[in-house]
Amino acid sequence: PQLPYLIDGPTKLTQSNAILRYIARKHNMCGETEEEKQRVDVLENHLMDLRMHFARLCYSPDFEKLKPAFLEQLPKKLQELSRFLGSRPWFAGQKLTFVDFLAYDVLDQQRMFVPECPELKGNLAQFLQRFE
């Protein structure tokens, strides 16, 4: 089968996001209220955009040429995530959801890429610490 894959009883899935959503639904990690579900949906798509933007940079033969523009845009993107998180412990609210796993992955990549990034302080740093 294609990788990654999940076999859970009669359920057979491929594709990372399909597997992630399946596990999240099974364990009630998609948000409970309508507002939480909307926050999950919005953030999932926003994080996928960020992930794709970063992947295009990293795999580009023009990496060194494109890197300055990426670094210039990064603070604004992280500030948006910081505002979205606000004072909540998790991105959807009071309970961990599957988008927190996605957010951790994206933020951890940026933390490794730009360790001195000031936007990775404050509530985003607290989020990373809570998640770890």
UniProtKB/TrEMBL annotation:
GO BP annotation list: glutathione metabolic process
Predominant cellular place of this UniProt entry's protein: cytoplasm
Enzyme Commission designation: 2.5.1.18
Pfam families, alphabetized: GST_C, GST_N
Superkingdom classification of source: Eukaryota
PROSITE patterns: GST_CTER, GST_NTER
Keyword Transit peptide: no
UniProt protein name: Glutathione S-transferase
